[in-house]
Write a structure and sequence with these properties.
The chain is mostly helical. It has one domain. The radius of gyration is 18 Å and the shape is globular.
């Protein structure tokens, strides 16, 4: 275990420029703050009764493998595997009722922060911005790491020409 940590640390130190995300990254702090401020203005008055809705709209997402709102690791959210499947169905159905939408409509109402950041990345990539490759590679690395931890699955890069070499 200690050997693997040392190897990872050595690789990270050997190529720090490959992992650096430019400050103007669509996923950077400045972009996220700007997006959140814009979304807060669009949302209107936030109070104790509706704050949950804003948070869910910004941060909650649909798990493609289950077709449900992400509540727990997707490998556990399967019929007969655990109680998380029934809980995920109940939460998804309840949110559909609260948002007045079917599952497709709900899917289009949530995960606004990530999708807005991703849209910025796609736009910079299409514009030929030199930073976009580094940003896409960093996003892909972080997303893969998070998904591999939670589900054990590997995913392909969402951006063309951004796969890890």
């Amino acid at each position: 275990m200690a050997k693997k940590k040392a190897e990872r640390k050595a690789r990270a130190e050997a190529k720090p420029e490959a992992r650096a995300v430019p400050k103007a990254s669509p996923f950077g702090e400045a972009s996220r703050v700007e997006l959140l401020e814009s979304h807060l203005r669009q949302f209107g008055d936030i109070n104790a009764a509706n704050a949950w809705r804003f948070v869910y709209e910004e941060l909650l997402w649909f798990d493609k493998s289950t077709g449900l709102v992400h509540l727990y690791e997707s490998d556990k959210v399967r019929p007969g595997r655990s109680s998380w499947y029934a809980r995920s169905i109940a939460l998804t159905d309840r949110l559909c009722d609260l948002f007045g939408a079917d599952r497709t409509g709900l899917k289009n109402r949530i995960d606004r922060l990530f999708l807005a950041c991703l849209e910025g990345l796609v736009k910079s990539h299409q514009a030929g911005d030199g930073r976009s490759q580094a940003i896409a590679a960093e996003w892909s690395r972080k997303r893969r790491k998070r998904l591999n931890r939670s589900s054990g699955r590997k995913i392909s890069s969402p951006m063309p020409n951004c796969s890890r070499k």
